[in-house]
Design a protein that fits this description.
The chain is of the alpha/beta class. It folds into 2 domains: 88 residues, Roll (Urease, subunit C, domain 1); 310 residues, TIM Barrel, CATH 3.20.20.140. Helix content is 33%, strand content 20%. Helix 3 links the parallel strand 7 and strand 8. The longest helix has 18 residues. The two termini are 41 Å apart. It binds zinc ion. The site of zinc ion has 5 residues, from loops. This is Cytosine deaminase. Keywords: Hydrolase, Metal-binding.
């Protein structure tokens, strides 16, 4: 297969991309072709590697309102409502909902996904279901499973054992939730425990860290220091860190030195955080997001994720990561010209680095033949036009094709 009239980010002119089975065989500069012949015509639009979803909860998707809606809109009521729904979770129920959500992601050009699966359940029912889904959907996505202790490691009975069992069963990433543990000390010891587990097992780390407006929640420094001392930074991710939006500048100026030394990654879920946080404020009302632009300006790796699709924490969502990108750029004051020129980094390359995809990702000869044809010729124009992935190619074959809406004008 070959794609012609492809525009590539960071390169001048148009290109022809040749695929040899499941690999990219050649990328060659070529003047515009009026006739694409037997090639796929990108029509001068961007061709990029697949979008990445670095933070979602597929085991909880499509459960909002079952059995009750989250009326306060807070994170903590979400955890309560989920605990009620969790009692009804079955193997098939989890698989059916996860497959539906994965279809939504695929239809928006996502081919790499990291999902957090709740392991604070003595039966580990959701985890066992998701391990099967990971195998059954390999033709659609590469799925990383995080062993995520929704109700705590130290403050949930048997929490440590469940985490270890989840990793032994085949989870790819060690999770955590230190700000939800009952005490500061438990939060700190949970991080030491999960970093030990990751070091022993060779797994990656992705911690729900300081997902609160409480300015006293300061577990990011603990996670970053553990990553620095163990030289594991690139393999470690801090998700949310929304409390950073409430920390003062004096503290952050010291903290950022450590963050840079640690080299850890960051995920922000802007639609979910703007919805869940700020709930205890009247006015002025905080945005409840981490310092995305500041992390980015400091050279740290930061990306955007969806977090939820129709679950106790967030009632909307359709799998479209570009919707998250647009909202995030607004909320984080990142609509400056320079940011708009490279906006797709936040849902492609930066996310791939968070997932440590390495040479399994990217538009380069020899890498997997996974790519998207988009509906616009630049990052800026894709955002402005609220564009889409029009074609998704995986393992050298067309996985999804979208026909844009057609408008008929009569005057
Ligand atoms: Zn999450």
């Amino acid at each position: 297969m070959k794609i012609v009239n492809a525009r590539l980010r960071g390169r001048e002119g148009l290109h022809r991309i040749e695929l040899d089975g499941a690999r990219i065989a050649a990328i060659v500069a070529q003047p515009a072709l009026a006739d694409a012949g037997d090639g796929l015509d990108a029509a001068g639009n961007l061709v990029v590697p697949p979008f990445v979803e670095p933070h979602i909860h597929l085991d909880a998707t499509l459960t909002a309102g079952e059995p009750a809606w989250n009326m306060s809109g807070t994170l903590f009521e979400g955890i309560e409502r989920w605990a009620e729904r969790k009692a009804l979770v079955t193997h098939e129920d989890t698989k059916t909902r996860a497959r539906k959500a994965i279809d939504m992601l695929v239809e928006h050009g996502i081919q790499h996904v990291r999902t957090h699966v709740d392991v604070t359940d003595p039966t580990l029912a959701a985890l066992k279901a998701m391990l099967e889904v990971r195998e059954e959907t390999r033709h659609l996505i590469d799925l990383q499973i995080v062993a995520f202790p929704q109700e705590g490691i130290e403050s949930y009975q048997g929490g440590r054992e469940l985490m270890a069992e989840a990793i032994a069963l085949g989870a790819d990433v060690v999770g955590g939730i230190p700000h939800f543990e009952n005490t500061r000390e438990q939060g700190v010891s949970s991080i030491k425990f999960l970093m030990d587990l990751a070091e022993r097992s060779g797994c990656l780390v992705d911690v729900h860290c300081d997902e609160t407006d409480d300015p006293q929640s300061r577990f990011l420094e603990v996670l970053a220091e553990e990553a620095r001392v163990r030289d594991m930074g690139e393999r470690v991710t801090a998700s949310h860190t929304t409390a950073m939006g409430s920390w003062d500048n004096a503290y952050c100026s010291k903290l950022f030195r450590l963050l840079k030394l640690s080299r850890i990654n960051f995920v922000s879920c802007p639609t979910e955080s703007i919805h869940l946080q700020g709930r205890f404020d009247t006015f002025p009302k905080r945005r409840g997001l981490t310092r995305v632009a500041e992390l980015d300006r400091a050279g740290l790796n930061v990306c955007f994720g969806q977090d939820s699709i129709v679950d106790p924490w967030y009632p909307l969502g359709n799998g479209n990561i570009l919707r998250i990108l647009e909202a995030g750029l607004h909320i984080c004051h990142m609509l400056g010209y320079a940011d708009l020129q490279r906006a797709l980094d936040l849902v492609t390359g930066h996310s791939a680095r968070t997932l440590q995809l390495g040479e399994r990702y990217g538009l380069e000869v020899g890498r997997p033949a996974n790519l998207l044809i988009l509906s616009a010729a630049s990052d800026y124009e894709l955002l402005r036009s609220q564009g889409h992935a029009l074609v998704s190619i995986r393992h050298g074959e067309v996985l999804m094709r979208r026909t844009p809406a057609r408008i008929e004008r009569y005057s």
